[in-house]
Amino acid sequence: MFDFIKDNLILNDPMLIGANISILLSVIGIVFILTYFKKWKWLWTEWLTTVDHKKIGIMYIIAAIVMLFRGGVDALLMRAQLTVPNNEFLTSHHYNEIFTTHGTIMIIFMAMPFVMGLMNVVVPLQIGARDVAFPYLNALSFWSFFFGAILFNISFVFGGSPDAGWTNYAPLAIEGSTGPGINYYLLGLQISGIGTLLTGINFIVTIIKMRAPGMTLLRMPMFTWTSLVTAFIIVFAFPVLTVTLALMTFDRIFGTHFFTLADGGMPMLWANLFWIWGHPEVYIVILPAFGIFSEIISAFARKTLFGYKSMVISIVTISFLSFLVWVHHFFTMGGSAAVNSVFSITTMAIAIPTGIKIFNWLLTLYKGRIEFSVPMLWSVGFIPTFLIGGVTGVMLGMAAADFQYHNSYFLVAHFHYTLIAGTVFACFAGFVFWYPKMFGHKLNERLGKWTFWFFTIGFNVCFLPQFLLGFDGMPRRVYTYGPEDGWTGLNVISTIGGIGMGIAFMILVYNVYYSFRYSKRETTGDVWGNGRTLEWATTTAVAPHYNFAVVPEVKGYDAFWLMKQEKQKEKIEYKPIHMPSNAGTPIVMSAFFFVAGFGLVFKLWWIAILGGIGVLACLAVRSLRSHKEDEGYYVSVDEILKTEEKKEA
Ligand code: HEM
Ligand SMILES: [Cu+2]
């Protein structure tokens, strides 16, 4: 046992020793603080066992921000390495690990959970529901994401990280990579993927079945619509990932030959299966972002969203097309001219519904009474930036041209323009917009504007030069280059931009602290004063755990806006509200998934089996109990009155 730890703990690099020490110190610090302030019980009852969708959403967002930090540090390390030619700051091996973990973490453990966090907080409120359809399942979703992320992340200090790119192409990932790194990738994604799939199912049922009376499908807010479509994409795409990861896990751990070069394996099968999941995946993070921008633009322009129905039609079209374009990720890997042409056309077709949406946003802004608050800045900043991403996407989508661009820095610039301007801008926008709903006060506007400008300028300074580097022939995924290549100047500029984004992130974190100390506490539910959708209709700034004292009645699109127009003041009669009780099994079961995954990573069978038994035991506990004991509880009329009266005070 001791030898196992000694062999796998990575201590050969000062940077990693530093990481080990700081992780150890943080853990000791957290344990100390929780014990000193006697917060363990509070942590367990209020957070770890909660089934409240808003708290689960907040935990998703916190985890995503921590992962943004981790992925961001990776990014800055890579930029540091590439700033000057022949740099020896990182070795090639270390560089491979870092771009792999950077990509994987940013997409799987940052963008997706951030979006899901916002969905969790907002969607039930927007449809006037008390919670999601399956609150227990929701907790399980979060915890399996969380433990999947932890499993992936410990590879950094224990055993070595995956190093075959976030696409994890075979046969490189099977025959080309020894050590446990790729196993961490396979099992970390598998465990968190369970959570994602469950979330997809949960949100489909929630949105279809739990809408308040009067909220027809075509009265649903745009963010709810995009969440629904996203949930459908998840349910169709994630089973593909599950099977694909399982097959490669067999290849790596049990010696099967699905994706190997030898013994009849087919490496191209991996590429196809990966991207059949992988392309829809980028829409899983971009469609909710479109929803967020729609809400914010219409709120701060004080106008109904322009072209609502065409918006709905275009997101449904995009979701459908997203499954028909995967081959554009390997135009150069020997597909016939006919195959490449078909996928070229489907790829470019996505630009049409996307263009419709851009025009709708612009027309919503047209003649609006625009207020440039921080969420609005992110939303307006998104439009031109995303346009660059989209146009370069169409350039890449032309199969013949892609032979020139692919695997160059041009591609890197393209997908950062879509992923960052699309998803990350939206996460920041939604975070600031809904922050008062989560924590009862706004974030500071001035600091928020600093974050916005540092980030947006830094982002463009970082990635615009990369289009040029791509034209100049710089390949992606190289750890160094020579002075004679002539790429130094643009790389220096790019790194400066990267630092700008890092500063923006630090201002954001400081803003959270600063606003917690100094921001005015909000008492009304409609803190921006221009809320249009039902999440602003709860009378308290932080929506109480039961959400609505009385289920609202929806009279049209922009339900809350219409309610405010009417201003009815009838006497309301409260009734006791039934709520589900807390549950400890989701976190325990996910911890066992982690144990099982860890055992498989190192082929330590007894640990794997132990974890498996633990999972089964939790399932058994849950199913034996669910009939009798899990009856939930009632929120009394007294408590509702007390909570709702806070507003008048
Ligand atoms: C606007 C429509 C879009 C088009 C036409 C498009 C097209 C493409 C094409 C053709 C490639 C492959 C390039 C190559 O390897 O030769 C690619 C790569 C990529 N795209 Fe997009 N894309 C679009 C939108 C997006 C969005 C919205 C995202 C994410 C939110 C995204 C994320 C990515 C990523 C991560 C890659 C890199 C794949 C790799 O590692 O090889 N794209 N895109
Ligand atoms: Cu794609």
Automatic annotation (TrEMBL):
The record lists the membrane-crossing segments as 15-37, 58-78, 98-123, 135-158, 184-208, 228-250, 312-331, 343-365, 377-401, 413-435, 447-469, 489-513, 577-598, 604-621
Highest taxon, organism lineage: Bacteria
The beginning of the lineage is:
Bacteria, Bacillati, Bacillota, Bacilli, Bacillales
Reaction equation(s) it catalyzes: 4 Fe(II)-[cytochrome c] + O2 + 8 H(+)(in) = 4 Fe(III)-[cytochrome c] + 2 H2O + 4 H(+)(out); 2 a quinol + O2 = 2 a quinone + 2 H2O
Gene3D superfamilies (alphabetical): Cytochrome c oxidase-like, subunit I domain
Cellular compartments annotated: Cell membrane
Q: How does it sit in the membrane?
A: Multi-pass membrane protein
Q: What does this protein do?
A: Catalyzes quinol oxidation with the concomitant reduction of oxygen to water.
CC cofactor = ferriheme a; Cu cation
Q: Which InterPro entries match?
A: Cyt_c_oxase-like_su1_dom, Cyt_c_oxase-like_su1_sf, Cyt_C_Oxase_1, Cyt_c_Oxase_su1_BS, QoxB
Tell me which Pfam families the record gives: COX1
What this protein is called in its record is Quinol oxidase subunit 1
PROSITE patterns in UniProt? COX1, COX1_CUB
GO terms under cellular component: plasma membrane; respiratory chain complex
EC code: 1.10.3.-
Which protein family is named in the record? Belongs to the heme-copper respiratory oxidase family.
- The kind of enzyme this is, by top-level EC class, is oxidoreductase
Pathway, per Swiss-Prot/TrEMBL?
Answer: Energy metabolism; oxidative phosphorylation
One BP term from GO: oxidative phosphorylation
